Amino acid sequence: MGVLALLWGSTFLWIELALTGLSPVQVTLARCVLGTGTLLVLCLKTGQRLPRERAVWGRVLVAAFWCNAFPFAMFSLGQRTVDSGVAGVLNATTPLWSLLVGIAIGTERGVRPVRLVGLLLGFGGVVLIFAPWQQDGIVSGGALAIVAAAAGYALAFAYMGRHLVGRGYATLSLSTAQLLAASGLTTLSLPAGGLTPPRIDLTVLVAVVVLGVFATGVTFHLTYRIIADEGATDAATVGYLLPVVSVGLGALVLDEPFGLRIALGMAVVLVGVGMTRRRKPAAEATARAEGPVTGESAKGAGIA
Q: Torsion angle of alpha carbons 161, 166, 169, 175, nearest 10°?
């Protein structure tokens, strides 16, 4: 989760830089294609195959829409009019959406009070870090687009955890297939704003490559791993760590402002995430251990 937060925490920066020369659809397609290429190389090096069954690909296509094509497009669209601070706060609603989805579909039964308090604390810390009341764009079409993206992630995490992981395929195989499907879905949307001539310079090129290879390919595989090992809501809590990483790096590398409010917000986030990740009671942990194995312990159908 720490590595995932470090890589994913810079996503908004790369998107903003890429949008200086590309349209939202072009940014979405570029990150999907580069992410797919990265994971395909890893599959070849580790000898893992993509799924073969039509039923699996059907489920992968659904997950690709909600976890990749839809939120990537919404983030690129929303950040044209929304400040990065507001975007960070709205993106941090993913764990809360994930909890609501889990309760609705029955995967989050009997949520422990300490975990619920941790989720709320984490969100409160993110709000404290970004202070959205000091920025513009809190109520706008762009803000609604980012909220929709956050909810889409929550739906996708729950779907992936229920219908894809722990069913005989390695998470690397599944994450590669899903980004491949997302690339296909995004290609279909090119007529809607993706055919304008791009303005490529070195900054745009570097931003797109880093966004695609690291902030999409590598982070998406790590997300799959966490969903397989710990569940959708736990995977979604990484959203609370993203502003801690981005603000911390900004202060250390770019000499951006870092005051008491931000420090308190970061501390609250860390406490909240720690509460959500407290070990479950022994009986519950044993029951989970006897359930489906993680996606990495594939049973051979998707392994060469």
A: 20
Q: What is the dihedral of CA 140, 143, 148, 151, to 10 degrees?
A: -140
Helix axes 113-130, 94-105, angle to 10 degrees: 150
Phi, psi of 303 (to 5 degrees): -110, 135
Verdict on whether the full-model pTM lies above 0.90: no
186 Cβ neighbours under 8 A, 6+ residues apart:
25, 28, 29, 32, 68, 69, 72, 73
> How many Å apart are CA 178 and CA 105, to the nearest integer?
23
188: exposed, middle or buried (Cβ count in 10 Å: 0-12, 13-18, 19+): exposed
Element (H, E) at 289: helix 282-289
Angle at 256 between CA 4 and CA 271, to 5 degrees: 45
Give Cβ neighbours of residue 265 (< 8 Å, ≥ 6 apart): 125, 126, 127, 128, 129, 130, 243
Rg (CA), the chain: 19
Place of tokens 């810079």: 10
**b/e per residue 194-228 (b: at least 16 CB within 10 A):** beeeeeeeeebeebbebbbbbbbbbbbbbbbbbbb
pLDDT in tens, 177-213: 999 999 999 999 888 777 889 999 999 999 999 999 9
pLDDT in tens, 262-303: 788 878 888 887 787 665 554 444 444 444 444 444 433 333
